[in-house]
Amino acid sequence: MIYPICIYGSPVLRKVAQDINPDYPNLKQLISDMFDSMYQSDGIGLAAPQIGLSIRLFVIDGTPLVEDDPSLKDFKKAFINAHIVERFDEISRFSEGCLSIPNIHEEVDRESKIRIKYVDENFEPHEEVFEGVAARIIQHEYDHLDGILFTDRLSPIRRQLLKSKLSAISKGKFSTDYKYKLAK
Ligand code: NI
C-alpha cells in the first residue's frame, strides 16, 4: 500500500518517536510499504513519522544518487530503533529537500561522518560508521525521528525568508504528484 505523506504543519512531524519491540505488528509489510511509498514519490529516504507513525524507523534507497557518490551503489536499508552515537569530521554543505516540505530545496550544513546503532528487519543489532552522501541522508531521516525538519537547521535569516512559503505549504498551497495529508 502507498501511504500519503504528512505535510509540514502535521503535529506528528514534531514528536520524538519511540523505539519498537520485535513484536510490532506487520513490521516487514510496513517496511515494504514504506519503500513503495518512497519510490512512488521519488524520494531517497522516508521516515515513519512522515506517514503518521511516531516510531524510530526509516528507510533509505540512495542508489539513484550513485553518480554523486559511488559508495551508494548498494545503499538500500531499513533502520529500526536508530540512535546516532557520534557525529564527527568536518562540516559539509549539501542541498536537501523533503517529501513533507514539497518544492523547497536548501543547502544544509551537517557533519560528514556518523556512527549509528540500529537493528535490522530481523532485530539483529548493528553499529556502523557512514560518511559522504549516506551520512547526509541518514542524518536527514534521523532528524525526523526527533521531530526536527531540515528547515530548522537553516540560518535564522534563511528561515525568516522561508516563513511564508512554509505557512502556505502547511495550508496545502503547493502541487505534487504524490498522495499527501495535511494537518487537520
Ligand atoms: Ni525529510
Report on this structure.
- The protein has 184 residues and is an alpha+beta fold.
- The protein has a single domain, classed as Peptide deformylase (Peptide Deformylase, Alpha-Beta Complex), CATH 3.90.45.10.
- It is 23% helix and 33% strand.
- The chain is built from three helices and seven strands, in the order βαβββββααβ.
- A five-stranded antiparallel sheet has the order 2-3-4-5-6, with helices on both faces.
- The model has no long low-confidence stretch (mean pLDDT 96).
- Bound molecules: nickel (II) ion (NI).
List its traits.
single chain; 184 residues; alpha+beta; Peptide Deformylase; 5-stranded antiparallel β-sheet; two-stranded parallel sheet; 33% strand; binds nickel (II) ion
Radius of gyration of CA atoms, rounded to a whole number: 16 Å
Succession of helices and strands: EHEEEEEHHE
Strand count, sense and closure of the main sheet? 5 strands, antiparallel
Helical segment tally?
Answer: 3
* Number of beta-strand segments: 7
How far do the termini sit from each other? 22 Å
| Highest CATH level, the class | Alpha Beta
Shape: globular
User: Taking strands numbered 1, 2, ... along the chain, how are they ordered across the largest sheet?
Assistant: 2-3-4-5-6
What is the third-level CATH name, the topology?
Peptide Deformylase
Label the CATH architecture: Alpha-Beta Complex
- Oligomer category: single chain
Unreliable stretches covering 5 or more consecutive residues: none
